[in-house]
């Protein structure tokens, strides 16, 4: 008796499907690969390993290379593989199983005719499946079955039947599903049991090295960077790479083509539109076209663009279906880059004029959601500059044009602003851009326009008893303080800061908390103008609040800037070690956030150069000045320009070029008020030039005229009076210095040397030795050598006498401190550090001191082991040692630890 749904068990093997049509041999044949197919051994090895599990799923997007990969692997097997390409037109389970049985027989699997064959295209009897599973379980080696394009199987009944056979065939079958979507099988059970192998899009993607080989197979011998850029743009998508290679091969300049081809005008576009977009429902096509204007998107944002509420389900389905929609996690999605390019071009063609509307909707949604940077980008893309500038100003984020990792992006974005756009916000943004480039006249013109407009708005708000534009006013005051800094106007800066402090009470607290850079910038501007005016302690108070304040990327540049100026204050007061530590800390802030060095105003390098000159490390000083000059353009204010002139002039003096030093010390620094310390140090350089030319009276008179009673100038004048033959006048000047002066060793050592020289002139050798001993002890702690070189020829013979010889030996003079000895050199005999350690090198050194291994240091600092080794080599070279223990010992001697 013949059971319904199957042929007579004793009948011959059928040669037609249940509908009576001959079996199509193309559906049972392993596809052949193109001549340019690239076999990737890592994927072949993975498929080889997949034979250890009953089920393998190769799941990837259209054109990901799934079928070619599995076909190439199957063709190289030492035993036949049953291959079936499924079709959407199959009329139910009966047709599917009839074809699968035929595929097994075509592959040479010895199935007995008693298994039967479905006679009804729409159904199959469970007993046929049972006999098939039993037969497969009794065969020898497992039968390999490949179901290509399995995503076309949408009937849950077929999936249940396939799972039944797979389960009961046990180790007799190895099933490989090639699919674009998650297959209709209980994959969670297989994953739990560990009997499934999965190869997905990420693994199918070409690496840059594989892409370079593929291009070579197409006759394109191109540099690896070109391949890397192409892989980045295509995300390693196999079909995209092949289509691009074919098109480039026909182009006279393949390399240029691959760098800048227009995706919407290539075969890639035809492929994606036909294979992905046109397979979707009208609602899904509409969503894809609209979200193509976004770099990334949430379902709620997509709903705002479509004005529907179905995005969440559609996006999840597109991602599951490998429809070139990538899940970024936390509900965020993005389109494949090439797919996005093509969809945008298609959107412009299908819906002209819609793109700006979508950008505007996105900008408004993103602003409401607190995502300012993305809102600004879409506002600019919409050409709505009043909205875009207003969003930046109202969010109190105008300070981000001067600081933070996005400042360059914002500056570039607003560089495209329509000159016809007029509002207080657009004027403020224009003022900020001009002031950031130190274009004072143009910046102040825009700032005054904004202030007048805001004054009118405030009048209207008061008349209607409404709150005024507090955020915009506060932004105005920030720019006013910056302008005051750039022009060296402390009174204007103090006034702007005072008004801003009162205005902060009218601004929502959450905005101030979100933008700590605004307060940091205001304080930095005020502190800098105080520094310029010579109010060093008041400047230190303001700058310290910034340096010790909020720690984060938004305040990184103000903190670096403030640390650099605090270092300059210490240098001006003669504290070299303190100045060096603060300057190095400033550079470390930049390194931590990968900011340009120097960034902001870039004073730290200039301070390090000046410190190096006083230590006699002239090559290092030159290196710091060169590094500052070679860095990206930094903002310039009077403090920066005077600091650069000071460091350069002192280096030229140390090299004996007095004429060039005087010229370098007198730059055209434009400022509303004069700076006492800038005038004083300019006079010191000119005074040194007079002394070198044998004009001590002129040198003394020059310094005597400097206002402010600066200790360093008084010491310089005393030195000139001594050179003029009036030692008593020199001593009187030194005695007049305030005993509570904050002066450090760079000043006090010079004063002691003048006293010692005066005592030497008067024949008081005991006083000479006493003053020199004190000078040597203070100078040694700071490695301060330059004052001794300035002192003149009388000093060297005196330093050769005991006990002064021992105090000077090793660090100031090359003579050993005592009798020759063997063994490791004493600390004072080692050469000084001729190049400063970077912030990262100091980090490595501190961990050496804690006896951490190279691997532990790398892990602690989030660096590679090779990078740590490079830093170690540099530390050893700079400290003139060869071993870790010696480096730590040497660092302690130099007080680096």
From TrEMBL:
<dbReference type="InterPro" id="IPR016032">
    <property type="entry name" value="Sig_transdc_resp-reg_C-effctor"/>
</dbReference>
<dbReference type="Pfam" id="PF00196">
    <property type="entry name" value="GerE"/>
</dbReference>
<dbReference type="InterPro" id="IPR049945">
    <property type="entry name" value="AAA_22"/>
</dbReference>
<feature type="region of interest" description="Disordered">
    <location>
        <begin position="812"/>
        <end position="838"/>
    </location>
</feature>
<dbReference type="InterPro" id="IPR000792">
    <property type="entry name" value="Tscrpt_reg_LuxR_C"/>
</dbReference>
<dbReference type="InterPro" id="IPR036388">
    <property type="entry name" value="WH-like_DNA-bd_sf"/>
</dbReference>
<feature type="compositionally biased region" description="Basic and acidic residues">
    <location>
        <begin position="826"/>
        <end position="838"/>
    </location>
</feature>
<dbReference type="Pfam" id="PF25873">
    <property type="entry name" value="WHD_MalT"/>
</dbReference>
<dbReference type="InterPro" id="IPR011990">
    <property type="entry name" value="TPR-like_helical_dom_sf"/>
</dbReference>
<dbReference type="Pfam" id="PF13401">
    <property type="entry name" value="AAA_22"/>
</dbReference>
<feature type="domain" description="HTH luxR-type">
    <location>
        <begin position="828"/>
        <end position="895"/>
    </location>
</feature>
<dbReference type="InterPro" id="IPR027417">
    <property type="entry name" value="P-loop_NTPase"/>
</dbReference>
<keyword id="KW-0804">Transcription</keyword>
<keyword id="KW-0805">Transcription regulation</keyword>
<dbReference type="InterPro" id="IPR059106">
    <property type="entry name" value="WHD_MalT"/>
</dbReference>
<protein>
    <submittedName>
        <fullName>LuxR C-terminal-related transcriptional regulator</fullName>
    </submittedName>
</protein>
<keyword id="KW-0238">DNA-binding</keyword>
